[in-house]
Amino acid sequence: MSEENDNVAPSDKDKNYLMPEDQKVEQVNTENDEKNPIDAFDSSVQSMHKICQGLLEKQKNLEKTNMEMIEKLRSAEEKIEKQSLELQQIRQNIQLKSDVSTEPLETDNHLNTDSSDFKETT
């Protein structure tokens, strides 16, 4: 009796039960395409429309991300410029202070040289 069950060909319902879900959908679509080509065309158009909508959404997300990155870069450039100007001002202040502090030394050295010259002549 069990040998008879093994030899019996599976019915279409059994075949569908054993098939993966994607293959089932594809088989149903193929059967529908054969029955009504206009519905098949509409189905294809709808599928393409969904794909295009998905791509458009991804493109919008990419554009938004790009704009955010551009804004961050601009902000970083502005900060760099501002800090560069601040550093230049600090450098100038330091240079002015060092110039002022070296002037008295030069004057003192000049006076010391003059007094030593005076001592030598006497």
Characteristics:
93% helix, 122 residues, mainly alpha, single chain
Short description:
With 122 residues, this protein is mainly α. The protein has 4 helices and no strands.
Which sheet architecture does the biggest sheet show? none
Mean pLDDT: 76
Instruction: Determine Rg (CA atoms, Å).
Output: 44 Å
* Annotation, overall tally of beta strands: 0
Question: Helix coverage percent of residues?
Answer: over 70%
Count of the domains: 1
What spatial form do the alpha-carbon principal axes imply? rod-shaped
Stretches with pLDDT under 50, minimum 5 residues: none
How large a portion of the residues is in β-strands, by DSSP E? under 5%
Oligomeric composition of the shown chains = single chain
Keywords: Coiled coil
